[in-house]
Amino acid sequence: MPPKVVEKFEVDYVQILDEQGNVVPGAIVPKLSDRVLQEKYEMMKFLRAFDNKALALQRQGRMGTYSEFKGQEAIQVGAMMSLEEKDWFFPTYRDSGAIIARGVAPESIFRYWSGDEEGQNFPPGVHVFPIAIPVASQIPHAVGGAWVLKHRNPGSIALVTIGDGGTSKADFYEGMNLAGVFNVPVVCLIQNNQYAITLPRGFQTASSTLAQKGLAFGIGGIQVDGNDLLAVYTVICKAADRARRGEGASLVECITYRLGHHTTATGDEPYRSEEEIEKWKHRDPIERFRRYLERRGLWSEDMEKEIDSRVKLKIDEAVRMFESFPRPSPNEMFRYTYGEMPSKLKGQEKYLSRFLENSTSQEAQTKRSSARSEAKSVEQI
To answer: Are 76 and 98 in contact (CB under 8 A)?
Structure first.
């Protein structure tokens, strides 16, 4: 269950839709057109399908290690809805869905997770920073970026995401402290999915909430139901508006749950009970929003079939395009980091080139020997 709000810290908890898709009493529903609501539902469905396909590709050996975001679609879509084109997004490694919702082609994200850095060569005008793998390292990047935006592009903001585990890292405290001191336009969104790899949220910190950590930085902190698309959108919009007005940074804690693995490299460790997982499956953000649309007369079984058909076609096309990209040369690992390659790396690249040439030569020789052996066998027959 979400941590209880501790009143003395003045941390509010925002929810608009309950688990059955009903508007909670007293909640203010954001004014969004019927078309936008349906489009965001389809986007969440697409991201769920993308996540499932990425897992399948990894299991089939067609893609590298992958970090699932299943169960966190409402956060990633809702947050991107709140941004303007001029804003910048600083993602972590569990934000493939948000990056796609921001406008990056899904095949590019497949490409990135296959080990090809060209997958992060995002189109001009799509303001997404490279994915941060080292935990919490994106916080200083975002705060520095927001500082630049404050002076060069007033009215623009930076939005950065982090997991609950990342809030224990020095980068988080140093970066957000700087954000408070210099009043920079950054929104830090904590995706509290209850686990840092296998460590439960309760063992991560003694704080009743993660949002209240904003008080130490002198910035606002608020909790929101992260499985409620409308609530996430509403809260991030308000935080973004504060930042645009020059009122500084905000810390938003979204309460959610990671339904999949930490990554595909971690396996099925028994650190969570089946009962716990099932409980959170009933809080699925997509199903909750579907029920809301149905009550509004904006959903039908025929519509669902059409969405599923479109989603499948888009996923299949993304996979086709991803697998049509030329495979990167191993030498590129030395070339894309520095403008001028250091001499040490030049030596390593030469060593790799010689190794690959010898391997290719040996492989060709083995094939020729095998062919000759097969030919002799045929003659003997």
So the answer is: yes
b/e burial code for range 28-66 (CB count within 10 A of at least 16 → b): eebeeeeeebbebbbbbbbbbbbbebbbebbeeeebeeb
pLDDT tens per residue, range 93-135: 999 999 999 999 999 999 999 999 899 999 999 999 999 999 9
Structure tokens belonging to residue 332: 């590129």
> Residue 227 — left, alpha, or beta (φ > 0 → left; ψ -120 to 50 → alpha)?
alpha
Catalytic site residues? 258, 262, 271
Positions in the chain whose pLDDT score sits under 50: 1-8, 378
Around 141, how many Cα atoms within 13 Å sit in the side-chain half-sphere?
Answer: 20
Backbone angles phi, psi at 92, to 5 degrees: -105, -175
Q: What is the pLDDT of residues 295-352, one digit of tens each?
A: 999 999 999 999 999 999 999 999 999 999 998 888 888 887 788 999 999 999 999 9
Q: How many residues does the chain have?
A: 381
Helix axes of 73-81 and 285-295: crossing angle, nearest 10 degrees: 60
Cα(20)–Cα(176) distance, rounded to whole angstroms? 36
CB proximity list for 284: less than 8 A, separation 6 or greater? 71, 227
How much is the pLDDT for 197?
92
CA distances from 23 to 13, 14, 16, 146, 231 (A): 15, 12, 6, 35, 11
The token pair that represents 109 in the structure block:
């994200």
Angle made by CA atoms 195, 198, 203, in degrees to the nearest 5: 65
- pLDDT value at residue 375: 53
* Alpha-carbon gap, residue 146 to 186, rounded angstroms: 6
